[in-house]
Amino acid sequence: MTKNQLSNINEGVTKIGPKGEVANSKLIDHSKNFEKRLVKITDGVYQVIGVGLANTTMIEGKNGMIIVDTGDGIEEAEEHLEEFRKITDKPVSTIIYTHWHYTVGTRAYVPEGQEDSLEIWGHDLVDHNFTANNADLKQIQTKKAYTQFGLFLPPKGPDAFPNLGIGAYFVDFEKGKTRGYVKPNRTVSKASKIVIDGINVELIPTITDTNDGLIVWLPDKGVAINNVLWGAFPNIGALRGDTRDPKNWINSIKELRALKPTHIIGVHGSPILGSKESEKAIEEYHDGMQFVYDQTIRGINLGLSPEDIVEFVKLPTHLKNSPIFQPFYGELANYVRGTYAYLIGWYGNDTATIHPVSKKVEAEKIIKGFGGLEKVLAEAQKANDDHEFSWAAQLITYVLKLDPDHKEALQIKALALRKLSETTTSAITRNFYLTQVYELEGKVSPNVRVVKSVNLSNFTPEAYMHFLRVKLDPVKSENVNQVMQVSLTDSNVEIGLQVRKALAEVVNFNTSSITPDFTIQTTCKDLAQLLTCEITLENALTMGNIAIITGSKVEVTNFIAMFDEIIIENN
Questions:
Q1: Looking at residue 166, what is its pLDDT?
Q2: Per residue in 510-567, pLDDT tens?
Q3: Which of 10, 174, 328, 360 is the most exposed place for a label (fewest CB within 10 A)?
Q4: Which CATH architecture is the domain 453-560 placed in?
Q5: CB hemisphere CA count around 475 (13 angstroms)
Q6: Global model pTM greater than 0.70
Q7: How far is CA 47 from CA 13, 59, 225, in A?
Q8: CATH architecture of 14-340
Q9: Which fold would CATH assign to domain 359-440?
């Protein structure tokens, strides 16, 4: 670790926040931006900040309230509405979605069966994106989302998160989170000028962290409501795995700049009030993203590897100090790595990385080269003592690669990661560091099941089978050629899997002539409970949640037992 890196780990960098959290002082101070409050932007436009991860905006229309984004749950929407009631008692007349992420509080405004009682505007990709079933990666993506938002960490104490970089929190543990999505009944795919409840509105498509964004432009008020400027460094190269093209985001900033707004209301962060302030913020956000992108491309064209480019790209002083571009959420290094992978893949410029030795062999060689296990342990402990925490974590990982349960190594790595968590300004990085600390300390299982049956509620019948398909054990199924049919009574679909020589393929019996070897009957809800281990196969069969229509219990049991994680028998 260089002297420059060591200078970032000095006394005074870290402090204790109001929840007892130990974190970078800048990150703790950043929490003041997410104190709950109702802000008047201009006449007839108000925003609630500090409730959940995203802000919600109210535009007072001729007959009612126009609500822009409904938050992460019904509870949040009800809290928003309570604040807006301080301004007007008009009913909600319209809802607008800036993108699909913050659409699940809508049921607070739209009762079941009354979906057409008011206008719900959004990009025409919103419903597709909300209901898209990436069943193959559901487990790991959900776990990484939990990690990113600090859901494995305690609400108070040293490991509590100060904030989430672009918002206060993801879940209010006292109130809970009830999903209440309602799909748009008015959609646009190109820039559109419309009148909503007497207000002139322009909806301008954008692409940032989603491809279904809309800038909500109020030309008569000079107000731009958007998911383009986040108030913090953007999350390019997201640790949870999302792939984002920064060029699209940069072009969206240009769309915002062309409007020359007087006031900018972000889905995240604090509002920016005033023409000069808005112009400055847009310029810095645009220039920061463009600079990192251009310099990353420059490094690629110079033949540098991703890690070389991380060291190569240095922000100029005015961007490094820009209040709107601070790394409270994304980080420059991740932007570089993500952009590199997105544009030209995983390979850098060193052919030694094409077919390297296994990580286990590498660990054996490194430990031997250091003079043995005790020397590596001593060197890693010394690195911690010298505040070289990144090196300590990296070095001790070789020991854990060979002995995952080595007690001293676990303690050394946990200490290193905890110290790194205390100094990073990124809320995301801090949550990832501390969650792994909890895994090393045995407080959280690395294989914790976070996907519940409720998380599969919007799955299509095919998605259930794809969720199961990728759990197939090739050793158990190498010599198998068998077809399971699943009759889903609540969707009137005959779906299933064919296991053939270590491969599972989804079969839709409504369109296929393949003959099943056995058939089970169930509902989507009961199937979801089996797939998420909320019920054992034995109990599901005994209680009638799953019925065997053709074939035997032995056939069904042996077939399901070829897949990971499904609990077959009661303990």
A1: 97
A2: 888 899 999 999 999 999 999 999 999 999 999 999 999 999 999 999 999 999 999 9
A3: 174
A4: 2-Layer Sandwich (3.30)
A5: 1
A6: yes
A7: 33, 9, 10
A8: 4-Layer Sandwich (3.60)
A9: 1.25.40
